[in-house]
């Protein structure tokens, strides 16, 4: 029996960049610091991404004035949501699920740089 993991190779590359950022910076900075470091690491590795892209929401088919900005969209298919908290909760999972629904993408990575002794990454599939 073979198991097909959604975007396996792409996630492996993103995870390598995340862990390198954590090895270099450690725990304890604000999310914005990790965002900037990860953008530099993704760029250095040639991983395609868009940061903080304003995306339109709709309600019953009508566009809203309110926009949302996922931290990163990598490979035009994977949302990467960054946190720097001592612990994640269900609200963080709900946030990335909503982002996936709104973008019609299928995979999100919820990354927490605030955990010790290493960054944690949760794969969330819609």
Q: How is the largest sheet built, in terms of strand order?
A: 1-4-5-6-7
User: Please, what is the oligomeric state?
Assistant: single chain
Largest sheet features? 5 strands, mixed
- Nearest-angstrom radius of gyration? 15 Å
- Helical amount: 25-40%
Looking at the structure, what is the overall shape? globular
Average predicted confidence as pLDDT: 94
Structural class by secondary-structure content: alpha+beta
Q: Distance between termini?
A: 23 Å
Order of helices and strands: HHEEEEEHEE
| The first-level CATH class name | Alpha Beta
CATH architectural arrangement = Alpha-Beta Complex
Regions with pLDDT < 50 over 5+ consecutive residues?
A: none
- What is the domain tally? 1
Strand-residue proportion: 25-35%
Q: How many helical stretches?
A: 3
Fill in the CATH topology.
Lambda Exonuclease, Chain A
Total strands: the figure is 7
What attributes does this structure have?
two-stranded antiparallel ribbon; Lambda Exonuclease, Chain A; alpha+beta; five-stranded mixed sheet; globular; 126 residues
Summary, kept brief:
With 126 residues, the protein is α+β, with helices and mostly antiparallel strands.
SSE topology:
Blueprint: H1 8-25, H2 31-45, E1 49-51, E2 55-59, E3 62-68, E4 72-74, E5 78-83, H3 90-103, E6 107-112, E7 120-125
Parallel strand pairs: 5-6
Antiparallel strand pairs: 1-4, 2-3, 4-5, 6-7
Helix pairs in contact: 1-2
């Amino acid at each position: 029996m073979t198991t097909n993991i959604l975007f396996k190779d792409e996630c492996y590359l993103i995870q390598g960049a995340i862990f390198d950022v954590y090895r270099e910076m450690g725990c304890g900075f604000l999310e914005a610091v990790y965002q900037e470091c990860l953008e530099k690491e993704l760029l250095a590795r040639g991983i395609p991404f868009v940061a903080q892209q304003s995306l339109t929401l709709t309600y019953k088919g009508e566009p809203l004035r309110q926009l949302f900005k996922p931290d990163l969209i990598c490979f035009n298919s994977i949302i990467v949501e960054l946190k720097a908290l001592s612990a994640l909760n269900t609200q963080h999972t709900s946030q990335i699920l909503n982002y996936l629904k709104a973008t019609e993408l299928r995979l999100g990575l919820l990354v927490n740089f605030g955990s010790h002794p290493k960054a944690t990454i949760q794969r969330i599939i819609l």
